Amino acid sequence: MKWTNRGHRWNVAVRICTAALADKVSPQVAGKAFPAAAKEEGALLPPMATSGLF
Predict the structure, then answer these.
(1) Alpha-carbon distances, residue 34 vs 39, 40, 43 (angstroms)
(2) Using CA of residue 19, residue 11, residue 6, residue 52, what is the dihedral sign?
(3) What pLDDT shows up at residue 13?
(4) 26 with 20: CB under 8 angstroms?
(5) How do the pLDDT tens digits run along the chain, 54 residues long?
(6) Side-chain half-sphere of 29: how many Cα atoms within 13 Å?
(7) Alpha helices (H) along 1-54
(8) CB within 8 Å of 17: residues ≥ 6 apart
(9) d(Cα 28, Cα 20) in Å, to the nearest integer?
(10) CA 54, CA 40: separation in Å to the nearest integer?
(11) Which DSSP letter does residue 28 get?
(12) Cα–Cα–Cα angle for 11, 12, 16, nearest 5°?
């Protein structure tokens, strides 16, 4: 996915993901940051569209 709006929430999500890769935060925390960034981008899928993917 190409992000065109690299706003505050995108920046936070990337930093949290980097911290998760360094074992400084849990993957669950990182996973919660990206829906907010996707919503800011206007690319958040409805909950039903993602069910069953994992």
Answers:
(1) 8, 10, 11
(2) positive
(3) 87
(4) yes
(5) 566 777 888 888 889 989 999 999 998 888 888 888 888 877 777 766 555 555
(6) 13
(7) 8-21, 27-41, 47-50
(8) 30, 33, 34
(9) 9
(10) 23
(11) H
(12) 120
**Side chain identity, residue 40:** E
- Token pair 């925390």 in the structure block, residue: 29
Q: What gap in Å lies between CA 54 and CA 39, rounded to an integer?
A: 20
Angle (CA) 34-3-32 rounded to 5° is 0
Work out the number of other CB atoms within 10 angstroms of the CB of residue 13.
21
CB 42 within 8 A of CB 35: no
In degrees, rounded to 5, the angle at the alpha carbon of residue 44 between the alpha carbons of residues 39 and 49 is 155
Residue 20 token pair: 């998760």
Which pLDDT score, from 0 to 100, does residue 1 have?
53
